[in-house]
């Protein structure tokens, strides 16, 4: 955890037991970029697991595989719906946590994603969102189009 600057200020509880021993399986959701399920809202009585290992090279897809193996619901953030990126859409734990936090505080997905992702990711609005003239247009286009 010490590699995650500022983690001691996160509003989280630390446990030594495994999450399957602490929480009901039906209240767990694994956030993983390999999931085909897209999260739109967060449920207040649900525990979200942010993968603790980087899923690349020999570990690619590990978090998704663990979720399937343990029969835990899984989903990914709606990155494709709101932004195009010049790099892979795999984020660090810090980025996922910060996006989730901002969305839970009331910020829109689009605003949270653009605010959190670093410049090197090259994130920019989807073409369908760039042409919108109002917030209502953006909401309507989000439900009717993809990037």
UniProtKB/TrEMBL annotation:
Listed EC numbers: 2.1.1.221
Domain annotation SAM-dependent MTase TRM10-type: ranges: 1-124
InterPro entries: MT_TRM10-typ, MT_TRM10-typ_sf, tRNA_m1G_MeTrfase_euk
Top enzyme category: transferase
Reaction catalysis annotation: guanosine(9) in tRNA + S-adenosyl-L-methionine = N(1)-methylguanosine(9) in tRNA + S-adenosyl-L-homocysteine + H(+)
Swiss-Prot/TrEMBL keywords: Methyltransferase, S-adenosyl-L-methionine, Transferase
PANTHER family associated with the record: TRNA (GUANINE-9-) METHYLTRANSFERASE (PTHR13563), TRNA METHYLTRANSFERASE 10 HOMOLOG A (PTHR13563:SF13)
Protein name (record): tRNA (guanine(9)-N(1))-methyltransferase
């Amino acid at each position: 955890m010490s590699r995650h600057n500022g983690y001691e200020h996160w509003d989280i509880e630390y446990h030594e037991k495994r999450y399957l021993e602490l929480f009901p399986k039906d209240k767990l959701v694994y956030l993983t970029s390999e999931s085909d399920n897209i999260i739109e809202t967060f449920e207040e009585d649900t525990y979200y697991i942010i993968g603790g290992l980087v899923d690349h090279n020999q570990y690619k897809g590990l978090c998704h595989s663990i979720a399937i193996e343990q029969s835990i619901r899984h989903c990914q953030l709606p990155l494709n719906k709101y932004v195009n990126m010049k790099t892979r859409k795999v984020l660090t734990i810090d980025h996922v946590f910060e996006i989730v936090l901002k969305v839970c505080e009331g910020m829109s997905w689009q605003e949270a994603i653009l605010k959190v992702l670093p410049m090197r990711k090259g994130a920019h609005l989807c073409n369908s969102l760039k042409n919108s003239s109002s917030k209502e247009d953006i909401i309507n286009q989000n439900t009717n189009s993809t990037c």
